[in-house]
């Protein structure tokens, strides 16, 4: 199992010492995301994952994207998404109220990641993909310009507030970050992706396969 152990971005380290970030093999990658750097996150605490499964059985679930500045991913990958509205961690306005902001449209979330602005610099040659065996350690990302986006599973309950292509989830226990995507040197994913469409849902579920236990 390939695990990302160190990812230095903006001189900050994304570490997986408490979470499992599994690199997807080519056969399981989500093709419409158009990047080889795709990871499945298996990091939810057991209690949260159990609560999520219970809520999913009652209400069902959907998938949506979350975009954020690159320096925020250290915390997101270790602790999951939080409702930062009204706290010191809030980075954008909360036009639709308090909650975690997501979108079924990739273009919206890429915008929150500042795609293409060239403002996010990574420490060259310091990001490593590590298997746990020293001899297999290899360079992961060498780009000085990285952008990240996540694909989350969301409980489809009455609490989920939909404002066209902006979704707001007040309860952080109703959001699990499932995939993490990294783009180098101005790469972009498909900006026309809409996760409410069946063709995209099928591709996402194929990538998840039996690697999570959310059903």
From TrEMBL:
Keywords, comma-separated and alphabetical: ADP-ribosylation, Glycosyltransferase, NAD, Nucleotidyltransferase, Transferase
InterPro entries: ARTD_PARP (IPR051838), Poly(ADP-ribose)pol_cat_dom (IPR012317)
Catalytic reaction annotation: L-aspartyl-[protein] + NAD(+) = 4-O-(ADP-D-ribosyl)-L-aspartyl-[protein] + nicotinamide; L-cysteinyl-[protein] + NAD(+) = S-(ADP-D-ribosyl)-L-cysteinyl-[protein] + nicotinamide + H(+)
Enzyme nomenclature, EC number: 2.4.2.-
GO molecular function annotations of the record: NAD+ poly-ADP-ribosyltransferase activity; NAD+-protein-aspartate ADP-ribosyltransferase activity; NAD+-protein-cysteine ADP-ribosyltransferase activity; nucleotidyltransferase activity
Span of domain PARP catalytic: 1-205
One Pfam entry name: PARP
Family that this chain belongs to: Belongs to the ARTD/PARP family.
Function, as annotated: Mono-ADP-ribosyltransferase that mediates mono-ADP-ribosylation of target proteins.
Annotated protein name in UniProt: Poly [ADP-ribose] polymerase
